[in-house]
Specification:
Layout (H helix, E strand, L loop, with lengths): L2 H10 L9 E3 L4 E3 L1 E6 L3 H14 L2 E6 L5 H8 L3 E5 L7 H10 L8 E5 L4 H5 L4 E2 L2 E5 L4 H11 L4
Parallel strand pairs: 3-4, 3-5, 5-6, 6-8
Antiparallel strand pairs: 1-2, 7-8
Length: 155
């Protein structure tokens, strides 16, 4: 059995993926925060996944098909979603609206990733698209982590 098939089977069984783990601290047990990345560019999602997981605080699932984003979010139960705006067939705005309409997902923070705005525009205080914060592409990983931490719900 190939690892990626096993991984997908775990996700769709409703059990957490093996990569998500608990970190034992001196005073508490802390789980990694779950992040779903939805972007049609596989290389980009994989690079962001590697960089975020290397930090050790995040468990990241990639979804490269916008049509499957809602189901992946329901199965994975992320703490936060990174969502590209421009994708074929369904754009990020449509995916965000679908997630917001789902009572089980509507409180999950979404951060849009897009090349539609400049880094200067995205950095302006309070700049949002459809009410969601924005990170301009190409993504600066330090800036992305800062936005993630600002928008993650309290554990």
């Amino acid at each position: 059995m190939r690892p990626e098939r096993f991984f997908l089977r775990i996700i769709y069984d409703g059990t957490p993926p093996q990569e998500c783990r608990r970190t034992k601290l001196f005073w508490a047990v802390k789980e990694e925060r779950r992040i779903l990345i939805v972007d049609d560019q596989r290389d980009s999602t994989h690079l962001v996944k590697i960089l975020l997981e290397k930090i050790g605080r995040y468990c990241v699932l990639e979804e490269n098909d916008a049509a499957k984003a809602h189901q992946s979010a329901r199965d994975f139960r992320p703490d936060l979603i990174l969502l590209d705006i421009m994708m074929p067939y369904r754009d990020g705005g449509e995916v965000a609206a679908e997630l917001e309409a789902d009572p089980g997902m509507q409180r999950t923070p979404i951060i849009f990733l897009t090349a539609l705005v400049t880094k200067a525009e995205a950095a302006k205080a309070g700049f949002r698209i459809q009410g969601h914060p924005v990170v301009a592409k190409p993504v600066n990983i330090s800036e992305l982590i800062e936005r993630i931490e600002e928008n993650l719900p309290a554990a």
